[in-house]
Amino acid sequence: MAAPGDLLTRLPSRPGTYALLLFLPAPTRIEVGRLGTFDAPPGLYVYVGSARGSGGLVARIARHLRHPKPLRWHIDFLRARARPVTVWWAEGTERKECVWAGTLTRMPGARIPIPGFGASDCRCSAHLIHFAAMPDRETFARAIGEPVQEVQFDG
Asked: What angle do CA 56, 61, 65 make, to 5 degrees?
């Protein structure tokens, strides 16, 4: 397990797709900007996104881990309440976050807790998937047909 600061040495500064896994310990009412207010059940939340800008994956994940910060994106509202557990990623310039989100929604135990979350620029039902227990990264990687790297952190 790595501390969040160790991600700078473990994540590439190249573009890619990622899944940030967050743990919410108790039922929580969360206001998500213009999406509205939602009752979020406890468990694991997997947020899928892409990092194609300056600094690549390490810059995007580092922003997600900063706390507190201005609440700008949908994930910022959840991140203010939930603890980061791990991040999965794969390098590449191709847009794959919709494929990743769709694959995750078909995994056992998956459900979409907040329709439209993280998917304002696509036709996906959401880029946030809830699981009562940790989804299996290897099963996910096989389903998308590519290797997926992981860094777990303690805090």
From this structure: 155
